[in-house]
């Protein structure tokens, strides 16, 4: 059974994505490595976007809950 790599934090994934983008922009990778770096970057981007969307949803719920509580307090 293959070893599973530990999951990277959001910040670690951002750093990894920035490094991949830097390598691609430098244009010094062989074509096959460029494709691999691009694929890895797209995967990281998808993970980052998903995590941001989840946190955004949580913030929206908390904000709405706080606004409702403020309205309830104001009506007393």
What does this structure look like?
The protein has 76 residues and is mainly α. The protein is built from two helices and no strands. The chain has helices at 10-26, 31-74. The model has no long low-confidence stretch (mean pLDDT 88).
Order of helices and strands: HH
Residue-averaged pLDDT, rounded?
Answer: 88
Overall 3D geometry? Answer: elongated
Helix proportion: over 70%
Radius of gyration: 20 Å
Beta content comes to under 5%
Q: Would you count the extended β strands for me? A: 0
Please give the alpha-carbon distance between the first and last residues: 62 Å
- What structural class results from the helix and strand content? mainly alpha
User: How many strands, which pairing sense, and closed or not: the largest β-sheet?
Assistant: none
- Please count the helical segments: 2
**Which spans have pLDDT < 50 for at least 5 consecutive residues?**
none
Overview in brief:
The chain has helices spanning 10-26, 31-74.
Helices, strands, pairings?
Elements: H1 10-26, H2 31-74
Features of this protein?
80% helix; 76 residues; single chain; 2 helices; mainly alpha
């Amino acid at each position: 059974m293959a070893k599973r790599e530990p999951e990277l934090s959001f910040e670690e994934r951002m750093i990894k994505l920035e490094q991949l983008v830097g390598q691609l922009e430098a244009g010094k990778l062989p074509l096959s490595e460029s494709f691999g770096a691009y694929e890895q970057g797209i995967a990281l981007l998808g993970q980052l976007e998903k995590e941001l969307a989840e946190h955004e949803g949580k913030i929206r719920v908390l904000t709405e809950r706080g606004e409702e509580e403020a309205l309830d307090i104001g009506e007393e």
